[in-house]
Amino acid sequence: MFLDVQDLSVSFSTRRGTVDAVRGVSFSLAKGETLGIVGESGSGKSVSSYAVMRILERSGRIAGGRITFDGIDLTAMSDREMRELRGREISMVFQNPRAALNPIRKVGHQIEDVLRRHNRATRSTAKAKAIEALRAVRIADPEARYDAYPFELSGGMCQRVVIAIALACDPRLLIADEPTTGLDVTTQKVVMDLLAELTKSRGMSSILITHDLGLAAEYCDKIVVMKDGAVVEAGDPKALFADPRHAYTRRLIRATPRPGAEVGDLLEPPAPSPVRPVPGAPLLQVRNLRKVFGRGASESVAVDGISFVIREGETLGLVGESGCGKSTTSAMIMRLLDPTGGEILLDGRPLTDTPAAKFSRDPRRGSLQMVFQDATDSINPRFTARQAIADPIRRLTDERPAGRVEELAAQVGLPLTLLDRFPHQLSGGQKARVGIARALASRPRLLILDEPTAALDVSIQAIVLNLLAELRAKLGVSYLFVSHDLHVVRLLCDRVIVMREGRVVEEGTAEAVMRAPSDPYTRSLLDATPMPPAAIAATPALAKAAE
Amino acid sequence: MGPRTKLVLYRTLQALPALVGVVIVSFILTRMLPGDPAAYFAGPAATEASIAEIRATMGLDRSLPVQFLHYVQDLVVGDLGNSLSTGQPVVEELTRRLPASLELTLTALLLSCAIALPLGIAAAVHQGSWIDHACRGLVTAGVSLPTFFTGIVLVYVFYYLLGWAPSPLGRLDFVYLSPPEVTGFYVIDALLDGDVETARGALSQLVLPATTLALFTLAPLARMARAAMLQALSSDYVRTARAAGLGEGQVVLGYAFQNAMLPVVTTLGMVFSFMLGANVLVEKVFSWPGIGSYAVEALVVSDYAAVQGFVLAMAILFVLLNLAIDIIYTLVDPRTREG
Amino acid sequence: MSATTPETRERGFLDHVIYVLSENPITAIAFALFATIVLVAVFGPILAPYDPMESNAARALQPPSADHWFGTDNLGRDVFSRVLIATRLDLMISVAAVALSFVVGAAIGSAAGYWGGWIDAVTGRFVDTIMAFPLFVLAMGIVAAMGNTVENIIYATAIINLPFYARVARAEVRIRRNAGFAQAARLSGNTDIQVLAFHIFPNALPPMMVQISLNMGWAILNAAGLSFIGLGVRPPTAEWGIMVAEGANFVVSGEWWLAFFPGLALMTAVFAFNLLGDGLRDIFDPRQRT
């Protein structure tokens, strides 16, 4: 075996004593192979790879096990020998590429540093070789980019530079740690394809660390699933997805949104999906809505004349990549932001009568509520769950908070014993429930779901999506579901609109948009999202069609 | 004009509002004297007539905007009024004494940078080691030391007990003649003159006050250097550099240090502010004939023109120092070149 | 609200405080020092063995002894008693100054951070103008202009401390202005003032507490520095800065105790507040540990 990790344990010394982040992990990798290490946050997947590189932070140490690379035991090497190896034999690509580059050094020089460190270039040849490395990662006009600083490049471009640094000395093993996190889906695909192609053409072995089963299935020859610092299952992706042995893997595969699956299918065991209410009269009408930020030369149009309608009990999906104007749109509908032009009507009456700054006293405040993207950030750190849910009850309704808080907690499935905890004492899923309970407290008629699951692990996402579907069935509330992921949006939505650069590029029923997108941009969005083979296996209808 | 030159000019323009603010505040301070400013400036022995005369010459009988205009006009030609006690123009007195203050301040700054930066960096690189603990102890103790107290303790130990230092009275013992003025810095001037003996004499007078001042500024500098270095060392780009196998020297000095210096340069402004303030106290303790002790002497005899002239001069000096820091920052950090 | 709410919170917080204190004994020492200083400030006149004003030429300039722990000064006054008495005055000046600048600074900083726009521009310019002066020098100028009194020392110290509070408040409010919980509070029917007062400000307070403690030390140093150069407090009042100044004349002839003990008291007080600031930082924000 080219890389052989046996019984690896990593522990960290923290304020609360020693924490075993990785416990007896084993995996191996042959020459030219790509191994995917999949797991949710806290599974120890990144820590394992840092251990292979021996770049654990100060408090961490390899507590046991062997890491053999091409016959050499890496755990027994001195720091000095290890430094020789890093960058030349094994290198690494990180998440958050912009932060991964030295902000005050020209990118060309950063590549030169690696080349010269490993004697791949001399002072005179360094520049040419660095430009060559930039060209190899398909950076247009590499001569000009050589002089660029990281802040002058886009996120995708920065990631190419990080890849150029990693591949500059032709290493034999590349470890990619969530290389596409923080990038837009379309950029994500370009970067992954580039990585796959470069490693293949150079005959390199690689390890892809990701939380995304679809990504691992599409790009890896072998997959290791990790949970709580241990490997729960390993094997060939097809076999693993077709017949997951471990309950956790099964749950993970099930929870991954895929074509054909209903929202109830994401649960393990699958549950019947809650009924969708029949849309009634128009509730919210948006007409030719515009928002312009800045003035004069620095003017930028965030939302450029969009119109749509949401009916009673209906769920509309609003899809687009970062910067498309979807967040600005939802802030305007929520009356947190005044539009530059256009109309927003609730029950046919313009909401913009009351300026955003005064809207907290408007009687319609309670009708419009929102579930935020990051549940952690959206709960006041000094409030208990109870106080957070009680706040809108006290300010927007005549009800007594005492009984109503418990009622809401029961509705969202939050155990009453957790009500007196502070946000930092709650898990991600529990905080999401608090956020939903608070949004429902004033009995809203329209709820904006702003990427409500983006910060959650996929298994929690499945539970939260089902909760939202249930609440809709029970309360008849309308949703505006804002997300970057069409596959997630489809699970809840009747209709979908796709935004790009402040405009609506596509509108239609969720099924129609998914099956036959009319705009090329929608198609690229759909194509860019990797799908696990289970998408087919787990959906009998599609499996038949595939045959 | 290159983009850098443009940016430097832009920064210089940005210092103007601060300068205007300083002038306005100084004007307010000179007019805020309790009672009748003219009576103050006329001195205790003044008669009714001489007060009226002073009021007229100072323009105090006119409206505030007109007074301000006159004040600015006087400033432009470098007129800060005359000292009450010596009768000399305040500007002349300040310019004569400025080199002494600068010599002291700059020596102290060099001294504290030379100690604080390596210390802070070493503490960050060897986090949790004895050097880190030493650094933390020194930093906390350092900011707690009243400068004037440190000075007095040093005088007691090194002058009275050990006899190593000369008596804490001024820049040069009376047995030496002051060197011919070139830079105004005695040590350098004496060396330029080839007079090693005088240079040594001047240096021995300088050591204690400079150390006192350096001890005071050492703490904020070392604290900042350590914090900035710790942050840089735990950054993603340092991890990238390590993962690429770059040597520890290059990672620490090339990647982490250069980034860590940016916040340190920013804090230099605050350090200067502390330093120019502490300078006054140190000059008093060591009878150092700089502008600080001039102000203290003026305060004792209620010589307000001299005090306010000193405040304004210090503020202008500080604005210029901050401008220098801004320009250095601009030249070092590529990100500031945007817009 | 349920009765268990504050209790759970208190217990968790108390555990954390105990943890920080036991983890870092220096913080415990700081708290003890702080308590001692406050006690001396309150009970100083009772504790002082001699009348701090009573001069007696017969016992002038005696070195420390069993009778006079800190020796006597040139007028024969007991240095120990004077150091004890001075605690109240020094603490009073700095507490008053810090309280004043905290209230004003926090108010204008929060407003600037929350609303931005012209409020931010105006207060920013104001704070920048103060910061354009070397702060101690500005304090000298203010006291010289306004008159040489203890109240003016307090005002001057408050003015030069103001920028720190204004800046911390502005920064801490600003980063939370559009935080999810602030948006959620707006959706929950809170007006801007309510969002600022009940949601954002309580979260911005801990870093400001740290600033208060650190600034306390600095305020004491400044006030003592001003009286050292002859501003504010006048002899024969017992005050640390002026006692050091008076004692300084005797150091060159070997009578070190006149300046040493008040200086030591001053240093200890500043040291205690600085340590306390570090300790508070640990308690309120473990992430900022340095």
UniProtKB/TrEMBL annotation, chain A:
Main location: membrane
Key words, A-Z: ATP-binding, Cell membrane, Membrane, Nucleotide-binding, Transport
Presence of keyword Cell membrane: yes
Cellular component, GO, one term: plasma membrane
GO biological process entries: peptide transport; transmembrane transport
SMART domains reported for this sequence: AAA
Family annotation (PROSITE patterns): ABC_TRANSPORTER_1, ABC_TRANSPORTER_2
SUPFAM superfamilies cross-referenced by the UniProt entry: P-loop containing nucleoside triphosphate hydrolases (SSF52540)
Protein name: Peptide/nickel transport system ATP-binding protein
Organism taxonomic ancestry: Bacteria, Pseudomonadati, Pseudomonadota, Alphaproteobacteria, Rhodospirillales
UniProtKB/TrEMBL annotation, chain B:
Keyword Membrane among record annotations: yes
Entry's Gene Ontology molecular function annotations: dipeptide transmembrane transporter activity
Transmembrane feature ranges: 12-33, 104-125, 137-162, 202-222, 260-282, 310-332
GO CC terms of this entry: plasma membrane
Keywords linked to the UniProt accession: Cell membrane, Membrane, Transmembrane, Transmembrane helix, Transport
CDD domains with a match to the protein in the record: TM_PBP2 (cd06261)
UniProt subcellular location: Cell membrane
The protein's name in its UniProt record: Peptide/nickel transport system permease protein
Organism: Thalassobaculum litoreum DSM 18839
From TrEMBL, chain C:
Primary residence: membrane
Transmembrane residue ranges: 26-48, 91-114, 126-147, 216-236, 256-277
InterPro entries per record: BP-dependent_transpt_permease (IPR050366), MetI-like (IPR000515), MetI-like_sf (IPR035906), OppC_N (IPR025966)
Pfam families in the record: BPD_transp_1, OppC_N
GO aspect biological process, one term: transmembrane transport
GO CC, alphabetical: plasma membrane
Domain ABC transmembrane type-1: 87-277
UniProtKB keywords: Cell membrane, Membrane, Peptide transport, Protein transport, Transmembrane, Transmembrane helix, Transport
Membrane association type: Multi-pass membrane protein
Gene3D superfamilies, A to Z: MetI-like
UniProt subcellular location: Cell membrane
Family, similarity comment: Belongs to the binding-protein-dependent transport system permease family.
Protein name as annotated: Peptide/nickel transport system permease protein
Protein's organism: Thalassobaculum litoreum DSM 18839
